[in-house]
Amino acid sequence: MYYLYFIMKNLGRKKVRTILTCLSIVIAFLLFGLLRTLGSAFDQGAELAGEDRLVTINKITLIQPLPYNYLTKVKMLDTVAIATQSNWFGGYYQEPRNRFSQFAIEADDYFSIYEDLYSLPEDQMKAWKANRIGVVIGKALVDQYQWKIGDRIPLIGMFPQQGGNTTWEFEVSGIYEAKTKGAETNVMLMHYSYFDEARQYGKGTLGWMIIKVKDKNQSELVAKQVDALFANSAAETKTSSEKDFTKSFAKQFADIGFITSIILAAVFFTMLLVAGNTMTQSFRERIPELAVLKTLGFADATVMWLVLGEAIFLSVVGGLIGLLFAWLIVAGAADALAATLPGLMMTMDVLIQGLLFVILFGIVTGAIPAIQGLRLQIVTALRSRR
Amino acid sequence: MTAQAVNKSAIGSTLVELKSISKHYRKGKEKVNVLNELNLTINRGDFLALMGPSGSGKTTLLNLLGGLDKPSSGELIIGGARLDQMSNSQLTRWRAQNVGFIFQFYNLMPVLTAEKNVELPLLLTNLSSAQRKKHVAAALSLVGLSERADHYPNELSGGQEQRVAIARALVSDPQILLCDEPTGDLDRTTADEILNLLQTLNQQQGKTIVMVTHDPRAADHAKTILNMDKGRLV
Amino acid sequence: MSSSFLQIPIISWMNIKNIPQRLGTSSVAVFGVACVVGVFIGVLSMATGFQRTMLKGGAEDVAIIMRSGATSEMASGLGYAQAQEISHLPGIVRDGEEPVSSPELYVVVDVTKRTTNTSANVPLRGVLSAAFTVRKNLKIVEGRTFTPGTNELVVGRAVQRQFAQLNVGDKIKFGSTEWTVVGAFEADGGLAESELWCDAKVLQEVYRRGNSFQTIRVKLDGADGMQKLKTGLASNPTFNFSAQLESDYLAEQSKPLTLFIKTIGWPVAILMAIGAIFGAINTMYTSVSTRTREIATLRAIGFGSLPVAISTLVESILLSLIGGVIGAVIVYLLFNGYTVSTLNFSSFSQVVFDFAVTKDLIVQGIWFAVIIGFIGGFFPAIRAANLPIATALREV
């Protein structure tokens, strides 16, 4: 207790300096929390990916469609539990900047393959299936556009309808919910049957297939099986686990992620330097006092711990405040950004890493003065007084 | 305090023994001899004043007695312990139990109150918090500063600061008090008060005191006066 | 005593001469500012470089015609007959009898990125010979152009460097079709260098696009060409197309990512700057306290408090300025011209671009440093000015 009191008292010695140092640490960890969260938002999908789900796309690229009968063939494989398909609609609401994802899917299969991530109330499901132009939307879209059940929503799509009209009208039949935190709810789901029937081009094709295997240990085998089915055809496929698929997609941004880490390193380095320098300076001024402590019979290690304790204490206080602010900002921005950067949240990983860095930061900034304290020659230090 | 009783009963017996102690430093290539083949015995209950010009080796001798520094050669025995043979960490522990220091510039922790400053050395003992409080109160009343317990050093006068420093030196009941120019920074009247206090401690508590000083009037308070020059006793 | 204005350089000079005595803390302040300015310029140079690549590709005398509502080339589509009709609208430059118009197909293919060794969406453009006439800055720099009717590719210089298997002579498979790279082209570092080009007819066949295209680029005839073209498009009721300047289109395409980088870059830079300000304040407080006696002496002689304050500010700004210049130079050396590629959200395809540390950015960065120095020196300057002379003289 006495030592803690002593540390606190020492920190209160030059309040302005302590506060400034603490604030630089707050900023370092605020930035840490924000940038790490942003970085992890890019590959968050991979964490939620089901182990037993596979994604099959056209080998050329995700954009290139596949014939619809591929799905029928895949469904016949006895290693496959459920198989369904999805299509990119690529529309926007009123203005190009109001862009969000819309998929044309098959209601029952889609919700059963993603039962771990999403749920839709049964009566809404029923109503949706009964409505040809019905769509279901997630919470992020509800928040952003204030849509509710029964609303009619015109979207300008990338696919023209028969006759060339690119404006499609939909009606909200239900609102689905995420069962897991971080699952995206910024997608509008429409009936594939309606979409395929009404579109002018590309009829009878699907965008990509989602496959749920019976035995997750056989995922790799099933992926090969599926690709083998369509080998040497006009449209060859590439099947990968949902995790790999999401990861490789995230890697398309890879350089951005790498650059974020460089920035973070620079930020940390700068703040470490600023805070470390101040602490070193503050201890240097106190060298005679440390010498007195040693004269009184305090062991070298005790003196070192007093110094280190002060540095760690400051770092912990600043770091926790910084992480807390980061958490508040992320939580506050999550809803606003849900449509563009879905699932933005500060994960436990980021928090734990942050806490480790807080301790490390304290040790590093305190290390030089602590070692100086350890090596301090009493006789010389006492003589340096005045 | 049983230790005090022992101290008193043993007055006159040998506490400190220096046998041909030398100390030299290296200053660049040059070897500087600070202490030369010094022999000295200090008895329990003595009040010794060390005098001499600057650079005569007074402070170095005091540092050796306090276990802050080690002799280059010779035997240094205090209370039966061979200081010259101790490691640094042994010396640290020995200091905590056996020596009280009083400095010219008091060297109090500016961020701690008088009370907390006096408590510092007790952290190195096994005393409980309540026992520590008791010892601190006793030491402060001994130096006549009980009412100033809550004050910070910058709220005290120089003389009061030095009294707190004396209380801090006394509180763990050491065998020997070492004072380095204890009145060097004080005016005449205050200096006399401090010297009287040291004298009282010596006479009534039986404390062994070694004091380095320039000031002949300070030395008058001592029982024994030793003069040093060029690393030797004269 | 001279006017306080003349005192400033005298005292400032004394301060600056004193810096070597406080080298440790001063260099930390310099270094802190260098890092901040470095990150600031670095992040923004990414946005600038991306924008520059996007905008360079856009000519102001070329219109791009897409289906109304389509926000990217990939989302557009038009038939052969429509393409023919559009080409003959007024407002388009003619080369002899033929209008300068280039109907094009735009798809993406998976190609392996060198840095990550994973596949990424690279744009593949199917073109006719007119494409080379519409884009005047495009030239083949290695090998030759593709022979119409064959599975041959010419590739942009930028994409060639960042992605595997795109050297002249390489064979590369997209799906089940094999292509041969026969040439590489440059386009002044513009967006086209991120693309692969092939014969539109071949691409139509491989992708089963019949005889359809996605966009048409036309060369506009004079300043009112665009207006004439728009009127022409509007006059045909069966048309559902809109025309925009290529430069406008690409500017629009570059917006989301540029905005994204800037929305991240600015707050990060500002937060870091605040940190650096703390560093600067600390340094300057130290500076003032080590010079306490000197300042008090000057004041006692009769120097004014304002010159003392300003000289402290001068020192702070000077240190920051040095830091800013160091940061800018380092970032310039490290990052200028550093090539990366990322997915452009708008076109769903990779764009290869270089970081561009421009003069503007460097100037902005240095201003940033000056602001940090000013704020960092402000409070210490006040302290210096208000130093109680009598006590300060007694100190130390």
**Biggest interface:** A-C, 60 and 58 residues
Number of helices of chain B: 8
Strand order, largest beta sheet of chain B = 6-7-8-3-9-10
Count of helix runs of chain C: 12
Written as H for each helix and E for each strand, in order along the chain, the element string of chain C is: HHEHEEEEHEEHEEEHEHEHHHEEHH
CA-atom Rg of chain B in angstroms: 17 Å
The CATH architecture name of chain B reads 3-Layer(aba) Sandwich
CATH superfamily annotation of chain B: P-loop containing nucleotide triphosphate hydrolases
Radius of gyration of chain C, Cα only, in angstroms?
30 Å
Q: List how many beta strands of chain B DSSP finds.
A: 10
Approximate strand percentage of chain B: 25-35%
Percent of residues of chain C in helical segments? 40-55%
For the termini of chain B, the CA-CA separation is 38 Å
How much of the sequence lies in strands of chain C comes to 15-25%
Structural class of chain C: alpha+beta
Uncertain residue segments of chain C: none
Question: In the residues of chain C, how many domains can be counted?
Answer: 2
Which of globular, elongated, flat, extended, rod-shaped describes the shape of chain B?
globular
